[in-house]
Amino acid sequence: MISQRLSSRLLLIGAVLVIAGVLAVTVSPKAITSAQGSDADWQTIAEQRGLTEADLRAAVMTYTPSGVMDEYVMFASAGQGGQVLAIGLPSMRLLRLIAVFAPEPWQGYGYGTGNEVLEQGFIDGQEILWGDTHHPALSETNGEYDGQWLFIGDKANGRVAVIDLRDFETKQIVHNPAFLNDHGGTFVTPNTEYIVEGGQYGLPLGGDYAPIEEYQNAYSGMITFWKFDREAGRIDYSQSFAMELPPYWQDLCDAGKGVSEGWVFCNSFNAEMATGGIEKGNPPFEAGVSRGAVDYLHIINLKAAEAVFQAGGAVDVRGFSVIPLETVIENNLLYLAPEPRSPHGADVTPRGDFISVGGKLDPHVSVYSFHKIQDAVAAGPTEKDVFGVPVLALESVLEAQVELGLGPLHTVYDDQGYAYTSLFLDSAVARWSIGAEGYRPQDGWQLISKIPVQYNVGHLAAAEGDTMSPDGRFLVALNKWSVDRFLSTGPLLPQNLQLIDVTRPGDQMQILYDMPITGAEPHYAQIIKADKLKAWEVYPEVGWNPITQSVDPNAVIQGTEGVTRDGKNVTVRMTAVRSHMTPEHIEIEEGDHVTWTITNVERARDATHGFAIPFYNINLSIEPGETITFEFEAKRPGVFSFYCTEFCSALHLEMMGYMMVQPK
Amino acid sequence: MTINALTPTDADMVQRAAQPVSRRWIKRLPPVFFLAAAVLLVVSIAFPYWGMVLEAPQYPGGLQMRVFVNDMTGDDDPRLDEVREIDGLNHYIGMKSLYDAAAFERSIAIPGLIIMVAALGVVAFWRRRWTWLLALPAVGFPFIFLGDLAYWLNHYGQNLDPYAPLSSAIQPFTPPILGEGVIGQFKTVAYVDTGWYLALAAGVLVVAGLLVRLAGTVSAAREQ
Predict the structure, then answer these.
(1) Shortest CA gap B81–chain A (Å)
(2) pLDDT reading at B122 higher than 70
(3) Domain A546-662 fold
(4) Which of A131, A509, A656, B98 is deepest in the core (most CB within 10 A)?
(5) Is the ipTM of this structure higher than 0.90?
């Protein structure tokens, strides 16, 4: 009886609650926002918004009051946007967009500024005005980020760019003419001697033609070692070289460090050498490349390869030095080790003693020991692949396999001896212990915990994660899909970068913040301690040329402005300062070739001036102290109102002038 | 008995030894004061005499200008030339460039100070009835500096270019030589700085030296 009465009472209460809930939703659908702007205290607001204690913890861990600086800066690629994003952690505020492979109007990049850098990236005279930025790599000194340079690869066209972190601008784009795509790049050696750019899809060398039926013999894989001249701040093309590899679709690479310094590791995923052709009744690539039981971890002796290159062991492919596969084999520059089929990632542990390869189609992460690799190499491998490349037996080099879940891809490390592997299919991040000395021998090799992420996580980035001394604390999951995380903005959805707190050991991981990223797909990121970055507040001297990073001999000094003519060549010399440009009348003639230099003579932080000429597709960003020179043909007569495009001052609208082009 | 100051006699020595301690000090102190004042004046060249901070929302920390006897600079931060920046802002209200202000005074400042220092040296060691007059410029110097500064501030504030961008919004004004003022969104705080205080201290020492010397002369006369 009593229990019946109790249950009916419970039912009644339940019904009332349901009705109240429905009413709450229908009558006041904006219950959450109504708390905002109320004069309630924070506990009441938290209660009204339905925030849990964990939410509040996340809020206080990430909230960064106005004027307070972030502790870390994350450099994330912006995928097919061809750019790089600088994001502050833990606030997840977007600090800066860096134009790299694509024109970008805010920075004037490609519209009069940086055109010569973009042009370096054109291939055989073909304009290429985008890139698929994948893996950013910060320059390192003794295996630690030094905050000086950033490199990034373009998967689509096989190019690498150099960004100077004094002004966060792209200075150089290089392309290995022997190959036309990449993926395993960029990664740097511990003192940034080389920037590694691993190729991806097999191609005939030099961009030549070869029928797909001749794939095995006529197609190659490729890895390029770009020599970085730190003094010059540029890649030294003549000291750079590449290695021809079997056409196994090398994927992600990493440079050895510590004990493995001088070696480079790449996973691959098409040892089957599948050639697709679904329309011809062949297995499609997605099935063909996954048919075999194993693929190959590539173990490359970079030190020895450098010696072979320096001894003249490379051949010339379209003007670039490439060590042919026969030479690679002859000199034992490359060893292969089996890995579970179609893996992803080859991530070297902080001490350089292990390499983690995510199973992708296998639920394990496979951990290879560099010591065992050395022993196996010394013992002399007994097997070879079809090209004659030595293959080390799996059991001779494998240290451990840890079962993590579905779709393990990419692994990063922290300061507690944990590794973190993204699980694409599970939409989760697995924390596992490295059961070796110097990490967590007390836990052994095992899965510790998993945290769901939203959704389809690709790469992970950890604070100082690719250095020899990771910081731990923060992890960012770069999720490919956001699905229901943000308000709908139509069928094209942003990516979701999730900040995860990994400070506490064991199963305590917490998602702190979701950051939508539009404009492109951030593929990988690196996170550096903010105090390592020493960016200029303004250019060091008035008249600065950011390409040469020195005072431009053509810089315009106040009082020397003017327009001069030499036949059809007109030179305009202009200064910009709040709130006028000098001169304000530019009188030229139809058909003139105009060379126009502007110096922003401001010294105040943030006193940037824009400069735009309508019709002529000129749009610049001239930062304090900067000098820019651009050229154009005055092909259309008329009057053109040029103006400052950056709201610089109260009289910004008055900061303009007229370019008068007299008809012939 | 006459006392020959240039060739001290035994009697002179005896008389000196017989002088009370305070009398001896009265003789020795003034030269020390004058020389110390001279040193302070020389040292003051290295320090700003006057400064002004312009505070506005878009310049966190403000723009600081320092005026030396012969020069103008910003603060110690080498990244921004504040005087240039203030000049840039001043052009909106039609104020002339600060670099053109008091050019003559700045050009004679160092020679002038050298002459004042030399004069103090003379006063210290060469006693004549009229030599105290040589010390007066050093006493008046800090006030002459401020007076000249006030003249230039007034001159700059009152002579604005009528064709400047904001000439209709800003009426001619006299920037305060000390304390707070307001121009547009800028609050200005003006103050005298280390160099001026050193010069003032020099002046005080000179006055003290003259007074001590006067006291000595008076008491000597009384004894005779």
Answers:
(1) 7
(2) yes
(3) Immunoglobulin-like (2.60.40)
(4) A131
(5) no
